[in-house]
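Sat 14:20. Reprocessing the chain from the morning session after the first attempt stalled halfway. Input below, unchanged.
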Amino acid sequence: MPPAPLYNLHPQWRISSRFPGPPTNYVFVCREPKQASHGNRERWAPWPRTPCHLVAVPYPGRGHVNAMLNLCRLLAARDCVAITVVVTEEWLGLLCAPAALPDLGPRVHFEAIPDVIPSEHGRASDITVLLSSTDPCLIEDYIPGTKSIRFTDLVPTHTNAAMLDKILEAYSSVRKAQCIILTSFQELESDAIGALRQELPCPVYAAGPCIPFMAPQERKANPDGDGYMAWLDAQPAGSVLYVSLGSFLSVSATQFDEIAGGQAESKVRFLRVLRDADARSRVRGLTGGGDAAGLVVPWTDQLRVLCHPSVGGFFTHCGMNSTLETVYAGVPMLTLPIAFDQPTNNRLIAEVWKTGLGLKEMSRGNGVIGREEIAAAVERLMRPAP
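Finished this time. C-alpha cells:
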C-alpha cells in the first residue's frame, strides 16, 4: 500500500537548491540549528557532522520525474545523504506500479501530497492558468547565454503577453538562487555553461547526465505490462522508430494525423507512446492497425527503450530530459519542437551537435508538416544513404 499523504512538510525545511524543469523542481534541505537572534536577523550554528536529509519535489511530468529520480539516486549513493521524494497522490500511484521505478537504493523514500494541480492528462488546456497556480513557489531557470542560438530559434513571446511576463520574471528570479544545478553536462554545453558561470553571482553546477547506467542483463530483468520490450526483442536491430512527443504539450489535430500518416507511408516499424486511449485508437486506424509494423502503448520506460538494440531512431519533441537520454543512448533524433526550450534544443540537435534531423523547416504555410515530408525524413533517418 502507498504511504499516507504527507500534507505538511517539517517547519524547519528551507529551499537549498533550485534546478531545471518548467515550471518548478525543488530540492529542500534541513535548516541549520538556530541560535539566538540579534535584532531582526537570525544567526545559524555551523552544520553538524550528521547525515544530510534532502527533500526532492519534482515537477509532475514524466521526463521531469525521471530526471529527478535519477539525480536522487546519484545523491543517495553517498553514505551521508538520505532523500525523501515528495510527489502527488496520482504520481505515487504511477510510481508504485510494477517495473516503474529504477533501483533507487535504501535511502530514497517517497511521501505523497494531495493532487493540488490537475492531472497530467488535462494540464495543458490552459498553460497560463497552470503557471499562475504555482506562483507562491515559482522557480524558473530559462537563462540566456547560449552562443549558438539564432533569433529565429527562440520561441515567439509577443503573441502571449502572460507568457512573456513569466519569462521575464524567471530571468529576474534566477539571480536570487543560492546555486544553480543543471542536469546537462560540461562536455555537451560548454559554451552555455561557461556563459552562465561568468554572468551569475551564484555557483553553477553541471551535475548531469542524471541517467542511471543499465547493464545489459538489467535491461531484460524488468517485465512490462504492455509487452513492448518483448515486441522490441522480436524486431531487427536498428529497425524501430520510437515516437514520443512528450506528456505535457501536444500538436494540433491536423499535425497529429499527418504524423501518423507519415509513419504509415514510410513503412518503418514504430513504437509510439500515447497516454490517451482515443489517440491510440486513432493512430492504429491511420497506420493500418495490428502490431506487425508498429505498436502503440500508453507508457514506456523510455531509457530502456532508447537503449534497446532494435531502436534506430527517436521522433521527439526535443524536451531536454528526453534529449539527454537520447544522447546517452546514442540514438539519432527526428525533431518536432513545440514550445518552451524545445526550439532551442532542436537547433542544438540538428545543427550544432548534428545528432538528428529537424522537421520544423519543412512546414507548410499553415505551420503543418505534411505526411510526405515526414515519411521522407523518417526514411532518411532510419535508412541513411551509404
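The radius of gyration is 22 Å.
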